[in-house]
Amino acid sequence: MKGEDVIGVILSGHDGRRGFIHHMAVSKECRRQGIASNLLDHALAALEAEGINKAALLVFNYNEAGNAFWESRGFSARDDLTYRNKVLTEMVRIDT
Ligand SMILES: CC(C)(COP(=O)(O)OP(=O)(O)OC[C@H]1O[C@@H](n2cnc3c(N)ncnc32)[C@H](O)[C@@H]1OP(=O)(O)O)[C@@H](O)C(=O)NCCC(=O)NCCS
After folding, report:
1. 28 close to ligand 1 (CB < 6 Angstrom)
2. Reported pTM
């Protein structure tokens, strides 16, 4: 928060075994100030406190800033998984 404005968000959770970071974003004008790192530290600490010892996330290959961020925070890329999904109802595509 900056005054009344939300400048960064993270949404994470777990299934009792693995943690997952669902969303992470910082407003454009506030980036490169350590805000995402700070949010991530809090989320990971909360997961750890619940006994979770591994966290994962998905990021588009073309998201250079996103991948640079996760790489800098020690999230390594895996090449032994295939991402699968299925359209249940027609929807507007969201790419972020
Ligand atoms: C990815 C994102 C959340 C990073 O937020 P941020 O607050 O700027 O990140 P931080 O300031 O904590 O950055 C920590 C480190 O990550 C790396 N990093 C972050 N943004 C980077 C960029 N654009 N290019 C290269 N490295 C980057 C750097 O190593 C940085 O450390 P440094 O600033 O000391 O060099 C932000 O760019 C964003 O909201 N992007 C759009 C949404 C998105 O892509 N979310 C993630 C998808 S899963």
Report:
1. no
2. 0.93
Domains and CATH numbers, the chain: 1-96 (3.40.630.30)
Centre of ligand 1 from the C-alpha of residue 3, in Å: 22
Which of 23, 28, 32, 35 to mutate to test ligand 1, by most ligand atoms within 8 A of the CB atom?
A: 32
- The H or E element containing residue 45 is helix 35-49
- Express each pLDDT in 38-77 by its tens digit: 999 999 999 999 999 999 999 999 999 999 999 999 999 9
Dist CA 43 CA 60 (whole Å): 21
CA separation (Å) from 5 to 8, 9, 36, 71? 9, 11, 16, 28
